[in-house]
Amino acid sequence: MLRLPRFEVATPATAAEAVAALARPGARLVAGGTDLLPNLKHRLERPALLVSLSAVRDLRYVEIGDAEVRIGAGMTLTDLSEHADIRARLPSLAHAAGIVASPSIRTMGTIGGNLNLDTRCRYVNQTAFWRSAIGGCLKSEGDVCHVVPGGRNCVAAMSSDCAPVLITLDARILLRSARGERELALEGYYNTDGTAHINKQPDELLTEVRVPLPAGPRRAAYAKWTVRRSIDFPLVSCALRFDLDADSVDARITGARICVGVLNAQPRLLKRTETLHGRRLSDPATADALAGLIAGQCKPLDNVPYEAGYRRKMLPVHARRALQGLVAAG
Question: Chain-wide mean pLDDT for the chain?
Fold first, then answer.
């Protein structure tokens, strides 16, 4: 049995109290704990203080406005996936939140936690004893990368289900600290450094996700591949969003955003998606073009289980299925 290290725990009742507690040196946030606690048991982190958000009620809300949806970072994945307005207005987000891991994990895990998920690697997410046998790596106790020999940057993968979806939906996030608040696009929240992949200061708290509502017809979907249908992190994932010139699957595409996950530490927003503009969503050739875009721009690494080559083949397959599912749904 793996034991937790020793640490203090603060249990603030409000977001303001949580921000104040985070100002202490060595403080670390914990919401549902579904990602952090296993990392603590593996001695990947040793915080002096855990600031628990379990009692912070003012981070749990969904507000529907005329132009945007505001989601408190403390909303659990279960509550988000079952929320009637989220299902109606942001169906791809509701779907992604509803297929994270297992029901017990979704009941504990929060949307804020999912967006701040730590990067994962087959050479890191092991016990300290296991890691000592290979001398550690860039993300743990060593100075080498076992995925890319000679590499200077950690390529551990970001496995969040909700991040790629929200990036395609142009989501913005609100960060709060003792210095004040700042808002930034979720797309710019991540970088390619697997050891520090989020652009957030240690004393900042992600309090809110803001998602603009579409001005016209749109279809969006999320697909991922896992070995098992529950528990597992995605091995590849893809979020799709298509703006249309009419509210029909036979309409033509006027805009497209496609974001792929589990490649490295940063979800990848595909380039050259304008090549899909003008195509009919229901045209089989559109699915072929989508698969070609993904296959040409995405090359998984051997940073998570299963061979990188096989994952590369599975990615366009599941993206194609997601598009076909949108067409079949009407």
Answer: 96
